[in-house]
Each structure stands twice: as structure tokens, then as C-alpha cells.
Amino acid sequence: xxxxxxxxxxxxxxxxxxxxxxxxxxxxxxxxxxxxxxxxxxxxxxxxxxxxxxxxxxxxxxxxxxxxxxxxxxxxxxxxxxxxxxxxxxxxxxxxxxxxxxxxxxxxxxxxxxxxxxxxxxxxxxxxxxxxxxxxxxxxxxxxxxxxxxxxxxxxxxxxxxxxxxxxxxxxxxxxxxxxxxxxxxxxxxxxxxxxxxxxxxxxxxxxxxxxxxxxxxxxxxxxxxxxxxxxxxxxxxxxxxxxxxxxxxxxxxxxxxxxxxxxxxxxxxxxxxxxxxxxxxxxxxxxxxxxxxxxxxxxxxxxxxxxxxxxxxxxxxxxxxxxxxxxxxxxxxxxxxxxxxxxxxxxxxxxxxxxxxxxxxxxxxxxxxxxxxxxxxxxxxxxxxxxxxxxxxxxxxxxxxxxxxxxxxxxxxxxxxxxxxxxx
Length: 425
Ligand code: EPZ
Known about the structure:
By secondary structure, the protein is an alpha+beta fold. The chain has 15 helices and 23 strands.
């Protein structure tokens, strides 16, 4: 049985010492941002759903906790999860249950479609931004549901949803996912215009279609869902994690290493691989993975944007790379309004960064110095790992529970690639 204690192995921080270029190979785990909506979608059927290559990360464990709280039977055997949601015993989780994980809001669409009534605590903001849910609510209303927000909760009800047309003012990943899941069981056809197009959305659509959903994805951000009466069970393996793959590729590139990443899908990584190629890295895709040879860090200009643009989840790691280069780089974050918390931590390592609004200007001096730093969020933690791998001296990264939310055994992967990294209490 996967549970957090297996992930929170003893030790709350990582000690990293520069051990030169990374060499070797490792397997990329399943995508956190693909499996979370897929776990929520497993409530759309009473039949058995089997999900394979489930990563041992705390966000998955918290979703399993919630699935059971809603009444689903969940069993885990090695990395295979079986979900049987024959009956739903509640659609009103309490703060403790839902508050553990922002992605719990992804249960809203499936529970509304299946039970017709859901109460969820407002997911609230987090360190990287306000994380509004107005587009999720707009979608539920367009499907005929009523939605009110009262004392920190969102209550939505609608006995039988009916298809509608929804224009998303912003290509929100979560709102797109919630709307698709709810529309699968609505009467009639739903058209989503301005939908998000991340690979994780495509994977959710594939998962739902394997259950019998009728969904057509048109390239121009348009998704058409024909509601069906019921969905069946399935046996599914979600895609690999493009952000984990991009993180390890970047670590190899800046350290001048040569690594192979099995399960990495180059088609999900275009903006990242093209920026790395600009930095002189050579990338050799092969069937079932890719090899990357790095040449060190060079100054870059990065602008994050919704897929197929440069992924916001890679912004912090690339900023760390820019600090190591010789020269001036710029990093602009257009997706989240407060995703520069890693700047202060990189500055502790000697980085020279000036932030003006959503743009950071980095004056790279060719190296960083090891220091004691804090992971302020999941991707900032990954950035600090990359900085520590190439810094002069020893780096201690605290609060690594953030990393454990979304990277399966990241330190083990780095170790397999030759890094000097160990867990400390
Ligand atoms: C998903 O978050 C990912 N999380 C995030 O990954 C990722 O960074 C993000 O998509 C963007 O790619 C999961 O998939 C679990 P959004 P989500 O809704 O769905 C605006 C990580 O590190 N917005 O696309 O919350 C708002 O301004 C995490 O793995 C609205 O205005 O992202 C927000 O800043 C971090 N109204 C922007 O969209 C809404 O109703 C992006 O949010 C919803 C969103």
C-alpha cells in the first residue's frame, strides 16, 4: 500500500555536492499532472478502473485518500492502482480531506455529473498565485448546474446536466479538465472553445475515451464532448512526466553531462528541448526515450505561456540554469502572478537577479556557491537541486516535502545519474 510514510523517508532535507557532469540513464515516472485528473475521473464509472505505473508521490496518496473518503474502493499492488466506485457515500468532503490538495477540486466535475450535488472547500490560493476557479464555475453553469459560494465552500447542484457551449477566457488546465469530465455524462453535446491543450489534457481525453466517452479534440483549442448515459471501466497507463523529464534534461545540459531518459516523450517537450538546443545541447530521441548531451549553461530569454508555449513548471529550473551561465538572461512568467519565490533562494547562492513585475533579469556570473536554502514550492525545489548540482561547495535544501508532492524519488534518479545527493534529517 502506498502511503506518505513510504515517501517521506527519514530526513527532511537534501545535501548536494557538485560531483561533475551527470552520466547514465534512468526511467521517467508517470506524470503527476496527468494522473491526478485521471484519478478524479475514475469516479465517473461504477465499474473497475485499473491505472498502471502509478508514481509514489504524496499528491497521488492524497487523491487516493479522497477517493476512499468519497466511498470508492481502492487497492494498490506495486505500482498498479484499482479503483471501484460502485457507490458514492459523500459528495461533501471536509476541509481536512480536500484541503490537503488543491487538485481535489478536480473531483467537482465527476461528482457533479454522477451524483448531481457537490460541496467542496474553495481550493484557495497558494504561494504561486491566487488560483481562481471562476472558469470552472462558468463551465458548470453552462452545463445547467447551479453554483453558489458560501462560507469558503463551493456548492453546485444539477440533477441532470445538459450540454452547452463554453468559452474559456483563459486556457485553464483545471477548468478544461473539470468541464470535460462533467460533460461526459451530460445530455447532449458540449463544445469548449479556448480549451487548454497540454499533453495531460490529451491523456485525460484518451483515458475517458477508453471508458466509452465520446470526445473530439479539434486543434484550435476546441473540444467537443457528446454526453453518454454511462461510462465503463478501463485499464490505463498514463503518460510520463514531461516536467520531470525536462528537469533531468536541464540538469544534464548545465552540468555538461550525457544521459538517457527512458519513457521521456520528446513530442511533449518541444519548447524545452528547443531552448536546450539553443544552449548547445544535443538531443537524440529514440523509441521509448531520449538521450541528451550537454555543453553547459548559456544566457537565455524565457517566456512561460500555456501549451504549446514554454511550460510555467519549467520556469524556475531554467532560471537556476540562467544563474550559472555567463551573461544576462530574462525570465518572464505569464501564467502565475507570483511564481518567483525561488529568486530569494537562488540569491542565497550568489545569484544576481532583479525582478520587475513578472520579469526577472538574471546576470549570470558563471557559477553559484553552495548554501542552505528552502524549497518554497515543488518546481522551486527542482530549481535548487539543479543549482546545487553545479554550485561550488555544498548545498542543503530544506522543506523537501514540496519535492515529494510531484517528483517520484528525485534524489534516487539524480544518484543514478552520478550526482552526490543525500537525504539528511
Ligand atoms: C495546472 O494547474 C497544473 N496542476 C499546474 O502544475 C500547472 O502549472 C498549470 O496547470 C499550468 O500549466 C495540475 O495539473 C494539478 P490553470 P491549474 O487553471 O489547473 C487562470 C505543478 O507545479 N485561471 O491553467 O491550477 C489563473 O490566472 C503545478 O505541477 C483563472 O483565471 O492551472 C491561473 O494563474 C503548479 N480562472 C492560470 O489560469 C480559473 O478558473 C493558470 O491556471 C482557473 C485558472
